Amino acid sequence: MKNNILFSNSLEFSPLEEELREYAKLNNVPIIQDEGLAMLEMVIRLYKPKNILEIGTAIGYSAIRMAKVCNSNVYTIERNELMENEAIKNVSKANLSNNIHLIFKDALEAYDLVSNVEFDMIFIDAAKAQYMKFFNLYTPLLKKGGVVVCDNMAFHGLVELINDEKAYMEQSRSVRGLIRKMAAFHDELLKNDDYYTSLFEVGDGIAISVKK
């Protein structure tokens, strides 16, 4: 997926955030690309969400960035114990423990832990095979006019292979399964009459869905 939109010049990083970026690079931790981050932060500036739900904390990088844009409360879910320990440390270093609520549980089992909160925004950046389940499970908590942002919609450019049988069949069975699920998620988002959805060729692909 070719990125024809330049956002990254609007980004500035604190010493801690530079440290997190370096940690992610050295330890193969997937974090949002700069172009996607800039678009995500622009959405936050426009919508000014009070409460954000994030599916996929990892080391806390995107939660920290989102919380700082307009002082939002971020409820963020992560199941990996190593990521949990890093996120706790990093959120504390960022002095954002009052804004960022860390929930360590499988996201498909964490609904009851956030069901008392009405969200203005949901950010999905976790297990690609479960995007549709995450969307269906948590969007009932999204207020009317709220927005869902999904990262990695291009799945490193592999989703496009769904229309190229030869290239598609050259992938492993597990990768083909993920491609099918992400392609199906694309279709379901665009067909969902309860949302206005647009897909953007930014970073690794960003979907923005606004609840009608």
Helix-strand topology string: HHEHEHEHEHEHHEE
Shape: globular
CATH class, named Alpha Beta
Measured distance between first and last alpha carbons: 28 Å
Total number of distinct structural domains: 1
Instruction: Give the beta-strand count.
Output: 7
Strand order of the largest sheet: 3-2-1-4-5-7-6
What do the pLDDT scores average to?
A: 90
Helix content: 40-55%
Element layout with pairings:
Blueprint: H1 15-26, H2 34-47, E1 51-55, H3 61-70, E2 73-78, H4 81-93, E3 100-104, H5 111-114, E4 119-124, H6 131-138, E5 142-150, H7 165-169, H8 173-191, E6 195-200, E7 206-211
Parallel strand pairs: 1-2, 1-4, 2-3, 4-5
Antiparallel strand pairs: 5-7, 6-7
Overview of the structural elements:
With 212 residues, the protein is an alpha/beta fold. The chain has a single domain, classed as Rossmann fold, CATH 3.40.50.150. 40% of the residues lie in helices and 20% in strands. The chain is built from eight helices and seven strands, in the order ααβαβαβαβαβααββ. The protein has helices spanning 15-26, 34-47, 61-70, 81-93, 111-114, 131-138, 165-169, 173-191; strands at residues 51-55, 73-78, 100-104, 119-124, 142-150, 195-200, 206-211. The chain has a seven-stranded mixed β-sheet, with helices on both faces. A hairpin with a 5-residue loop joins β6 and β7 (206-211). α2 (34-47) packs parallel to α3.
Tags for this entry?
seven-stranded mixed beta sheet; Rossmann fold; 8 helices; alpha/beta; 212 residues
